[in-house]
Each structure stands twice: as structure tokens, then as C-alpha cells.
Amino acid sequence: MTQPSEITFLANDLDQIATFEGRIAVFLSGADGLDLAARRANRLSQGAIDRFAHSKQFDEMKPGQVFSLNFPSGMAAEALDIVKLPRRPECEPARAAGVALGKIRGSQPVLVLAGNNPRTSDIALGIMLRGYHFNDHKTASDSVSDVAATYVMVSNTEEQEAAFHAVRAVAEAVFFTRDLVSEPANVLTTTEFADRLVALGELGLKVEVLEEDKLLELGMGSLLCVGQGSASPSKVVVMQWNGGVDGASPLALVGKGVVFDTGGISLKPAGGMEDMTMDMGGAGVVAGVMQALAARKAKANVVGLVGLVENMPSSTATRPGDVVRSMKGDTIEVINTDAEGRLVLADVLWYAQTRFAPVALIDLATLTGAAIVALGHENAAVFSNDDTLCQNFLDAAAAEGEGAWRMPLGKAYDKLIKSPIADMKNTGGRPAGSVTAAQFLQRFVKDDLPWAHIDIAGVAKVKSDTAHSGAGATGWGVMTLNRLVQEMLETG
Predict the structure, then answer these.
(1) Three-class secondary structure of residue 94 per DSSP
(2) Is residue 440 within 8 Å of residue 424, measured between CB atoms?
(3) Confidence band for 140, pLDDT divided at 50, 70 and 90
(4) Using one digit for the tens of pLDDT, what is the confidence trace for 103-119?
(5) Residues 190 and 307: beta-carbon distance below 8 Å
(6) What is the pLDDT averaged over residues 113-129?
(7) Which is it for strands 404-406 and 380-384: parallel, antiparallel or unpaired?
(8) In the 8-state DSSP scheme, what is residue 308?
(9) Cα 488 from Cα 492, distance rounded (Å)
(10) C-alpha distances out from residue 43 to 30, 116, 304, 391, Å
(11) Which fold has domain 174-490?
(12) Under 8 Å between Cβ of 232 and 291
């Protein structure tokens, strides 16, 4: 597993500023906003920071942005990074500052002069999140290595180290999700995926794997039909974290884990099919959240369930026009085998409710291209039957800087998935494609149970920089759901 870079907290020692070799970061709120560290660096650099603070360029900078002075006079450092940031910043600018520092960090050590900044942990988290590189399949000579030692000089090391423990647990969980989404399908098979989740038991999670014979016994015909064309066995993995009140009903998280999606018999076009290694992104997020909760010993009861399948064309694959029966008992006409994720989720959603009777249910899936058409790569699409749960999720996403936007549900859309030969069909065609997918899933949610469906097709893996990551797997949703658990179950 890829690990975030180490962060070492140091007690304030301004004499180190002159002799530190590498990069030094100082925070500047304005022309009159030099703290003790910035004033020392300003004297050493013969007033360079003060001159920059009075410049038009500084005025035009946004909070969290960085300006670098290379080889500043009077200092041994190779660069002095001046970060524009209020003395008491909000969470997102502080993280943005960390991300900016992480982006320019090379192989030289970094000294961040944080002093008594109240958002030091968020700055450190930003540095770690931007430092992700997936190198598992690169040769040593071609790999990108993030080896820079990062030191954060603060006024109270014990207090900062204590706060940082939970922050690092979240960063490690985001990296775990990114690793899962980045892995090629010949490595991350359904069996390998399940094995990696079983290993989370070392953190205190209770993990069990339901194999195909058990899924057949449970009547999960909807899920099983997706994977029946593949040599990789279909599985459901159940992860329980019981850190809350003994016997209290849990929050249930459900993730789509299609380790590779060819489209099945409804074969996808060749162009871009290689990206379908990320079609297990929902399961990856659920796995990351469960790791974070266990690592930080969350005082909450949460169960994470993921359906792991591979959608392949073969002589045993489900055909368009086939009718399958779900665990709930409803029949489904399979119109398009490339609308497979909802078939997986239907059975796992029903199983989660019948076994655990959760207080609320949230599913995550790279479900529809329609969500990308509607929202691009800036926001996940959020559907919900409960205004309170939905708003709590949106608030958590906003607080963590992860884009999310509510989309509609409505009975009028049901006619688009009406089947002449079964209880429903698995797709309503192109119009309102993400909405009809959500309407389909809602049929497998019990009445009066708060539920949210999060379509992360546009945000799980991207081709350009995001607020917290470079191109590639983002880990979107881990931080949001971790915060939601905190506010909904631990402090709410």
C-alpha cells in the first residue's frame, strides 16, 4: 500500500531558518501580517518578504497560493515558499496551501513554519494528499518517488501530534482507495480485492467474505448475473466497525465493485475501455472509509458492504433480454448488460437492510456516464429520499472540499424503466440516464429508510489536477463520509 509521506513536528527554533537546506515555507496574511517566523526569514532575506507583501502580485494571489523565491540571500535554503493565508484560515484554504506546497515539493527536505496556526493539521493533510504517486508497476529507474522529509515547526508539538493522528489515518485511507482504483484488473481481481479487505481485520474490523454458493443461497440473482461470464468468482465482502453504543443500529455503506467492465455482451467501444479498471471505485471508497474509521477508533457503528464482480462477454454471460430475479424477489429484464452496476447494488442494498436494519443507507458507484455529461468532473451526483440525510452529506462534502450536487428523483421517471415482461428493466435509455439508475436502486430501498445514492463516475478518477490530487485516482468521498460519520454518529 502506498503510504503518505512522513510529517515530523518540531518545536519552534527560529535559528534553524538560516541553516536549513531544502525548501522553507512561511505564511503571510498581508503586508502587516508577518509572524515571528516570517519576520526572521524577512531579515535573513534582506527584506524580500516585506517587499513581496507590498507587491501587486501578492494582492492578486488567492488564499492558499504560493510564490517561491529561489536561493534566497542570507539563507542556506534552495527556495523560500511564501504562502498567502489568513492568520485564522478556514479549512479549505489551509488544505489548498498544503496541496500547493506538496505540488512543488521535490526530493529536498521541507520545513514548514506553522507556528501557532490553528489549521496546521489541514495544511499537513494537504501536503500528504498531493504527494500521492502510484508506482507499484514501474521499474525502479522509471518510478516517481516522494521521499522528501517534511518538518513542521509549531508552538505546541504535543497538541499538534495528537491532532495529527486522526488526520494521518484519513490520509492513509484516501491512499488505500487511490491504490485500489489505480490497480489494473489483472492484479485487482475479485479474489485479490477481497483479500485486501480481509487484511483490514488487523485494524479491528470484522470482515467476512460471502462466496458464490452463499450468494446463490441468498437469492442474489441480480448480482450473480453480472459476473457469470467471468472466470473470476463474484463475492460480497462485509466489513463491520462496532465502535459505538453496543447494539445500536449502524450506518450502512454499500459500494459497487466491478473490477473490470467490458460492458458484457453489450460490449463497450474499444476507445477508453482501459479506464474501466476504475469501475470498482464505489467499493474502493467504502473500503477506505472503513479503514479510516478503524484506524482512528471511531465511536460509531458502521457496516460497509461491497459487491465484487467482473463483467465479461462469454458463452456463459447474461444476454440482453434475459430476466433475472433479485434477492428482494423482484424480476428484472436486462436490456443492456452494460447497465450492470445497478444490478450488483440492488442485491447488496437489500442484503444490507435485511441483515443489519441500518439507521441510514448510502451507496456509492461509478454508475453512469450520464452523471459525467450532467456534472463533468467537478461534482458527484447525489440522489436521496431524505432531505436531512442529503443535506448532511452535502454539508460534509462542502466542508471537505469535495464537490457534490443534488439531482432529482420522481415517480414520473419510473415509466422509463417499466418492462412488459418483468417487474422492471435495468435501463431506461439515454434520457435522464443517471436519474433512472437512481430510480431503479430506490426500488430496493425499504420505505421510510433514509437513503442516498452517490454517482461518482465523474470524480473517482480524473485526467487533470483536482483540489487535492494530481491526475489519476482521487479517493473522492473518503473524507466526506468520514466527516459525515463524525457529525452524524459521533457528535451529532
Answers:
(1) helix
(2) yes
(3) confident
(4) 998 888 999 999 989 99
(5) no
(6) 94
(7) parallel
(8) E
(9) 5
(10) 17, 20, 54, 49
(11) Aminopeptidase (3.40.630)
(12) no
| Count of residues in the chain | 492
Pairwise CA distance, residues 102 & 105, whole Å: 5
Query: Under DSSP, is residue 383 helix (H, G, I), strand (E, B) or coil?
Result: strand
Q: Which triple of cell numbers denotes residue 147?
A: 521521499
Where does the chain hold its CATH 3.40.630.10 domain(s)? 174-490
Produce one character per residue of 153-162: b if its CB has 16 or more CB atoms within 10 Å, e if not. bbeeeeebbe
Question: Which run of H or of E encompasses 363?
Answer: strand 360-365
Other CB atoms within 10 A of residue 367 CB:
31
Instruction: Map 38-75 to HEC letters.
Output: HHHHHHHCCCHHHHHHCCHHHHHCCCCCEEEEECCCCC
Q: Would you state the CATH architecture of domain 7-156?
A: 3-Layer(aba) Sandwich (3.40)
Is there a catalytic annotation at residue 268? Answer: yes
- 356: Cβ contacts below 8 Å, ≥ 6 apart: 249, 250, 252, 303
105, 342, 461, 483: which is the annotated catalytic residue? 342
81 forms beta bridges with 25, 68
Selected catalytic residue, list 87, 103, 268, 325: 268
Q: Which of 355, 366, 371, 353 is nearest to 442 (CA)?
A: 353
β-strand pairing of 251-261 with 301-311 = parallel
Q: Residues spanned by CATH 3.40.220.10 within the chain?
A: 7-156
Grid coordinates belonging to 288: 477506505
* CA distance linking residue 202 with residue 180, whole number of Å: 18
The answer to whether residues 205 and 301 touch, using CB atoms and an 8 Å cutoff, is: no
Q: Residue 302 phi/psi, 5° resolution?
A: -140, 135
Tell me the CA distances in angstroms from 375 to 378, 401, 405, one per residue in order. 7, 16, 8
Of the listed ranges 19-33, 298-312, 348-362, 405-419, the least confidently predicted one is: 19-33
Task: Output phi, psi for 481, to 5 deg.
Answer: -70, -35
Amino acid at 175: F
488: its cell numbers:
452524524
Output the DSSP codes for 219-274: T-HHHHHHHTTSSSPPEEEEEEEE-SSTTPPPEEEEEEEEEEE--TTSPPPSTTGG
Region of residue 23 (left: phi > 0; alpha: psi -120 to 50; beta: else): beta
pLDDT at position 144: 52
Taking the C-alpha atoms of residue 384 and residue 149, their distance in angstroms, rounded to an integer, is 44
Which uninterrupted H or E stretch holds 480? helix 478-485
Q: How many CB atoms lie under 10 A from the CB of residue 59?
A: 11
Report pLDDT digits (tens) over 207-247. 999 999 999 999 999 999 999 999 999 999 999 999 999 99
**Residue showing cell 452524524:** 488
**Nine cell digits for residue 398:** 462542502
